[in-house]
Amino acid sequence: MCGWRIYKAEDVHEMLSQCMRSFRVAAGENKIYLFFISDMNPLVIALCALVAVAAAAPVDNTTPVPILKQALDGPNPDGSYNYSYETGNGIQAQEEGHLNNVGTDNEALEAHGSFSFTDSDGQTYHVSYIANENGFQPEGAHLPTAPPVPPQIARALQYIAEHPEENEEH
């Protein structure tokens, strides 16, 4: 015979307490072991499983962000393209790209663009970039920059460039 039974809150609390006492955790080398003591009431096991599934269920509490503006052109037959968009939370982005050295072994895509966003503290960040065969090269006021080359190093590099050594063949 199968059916549903309604339990009092105290009974559910006792079953959950029993459930929690029925697991043991042990740590091994690069592993964590979870041991289950199996002399439990099958109802308690089912209740524990139900609680675990309910607790693990993802909750989507995010609000969709609307796209306010969006434009796209391409990809075109010559490999060029451009796009831009703006979202309701202040994110803006735009990029245009084209192929360099078309038809050669050095054919490469080059893209120029920028994006901006506002962080949770209200600070707006703007990044401009170039991406090509030399990699991704971002620029922005908030990005760190390399320190200037010390004058001694600059002089040494200039000297090396002006006095190349002759190739010696052995």
Automatic annotation (TrEMBL):
The chain crosses the membrane at residues 32-57. It holds the Pfam family Chitin_bind_4. InterPro entries: CHIT_BIND_RR_consensus, Cuticle_Struct_Prot, Insect_cuticle. One of its GO terms (molecular function) is structural constituent of chitin-based larval cuticle. PROSITE patterns: CHIT_BIND_RR_1, CHIT_BIND_RR_2. GO terms for cellular component: chitin-based extracellular matrix. PANTHER family: CUTICLE PROTEIN, CUTICULAR PROTEIN 47EF, ISOFORM C-RELATED. This is Larval cuticle protein LCP-17.
